[in-house]
Amino acid sequence: MPMSPDSRKTRRLAGIFLLGWVLLNYPILSLFNLPASWDGVPLLYAYVFAAWSLIVGLLAVVSRPGRTNHDTDG
Question: Is residue 5 part of a domain?
Answer without folding.
Answer: no
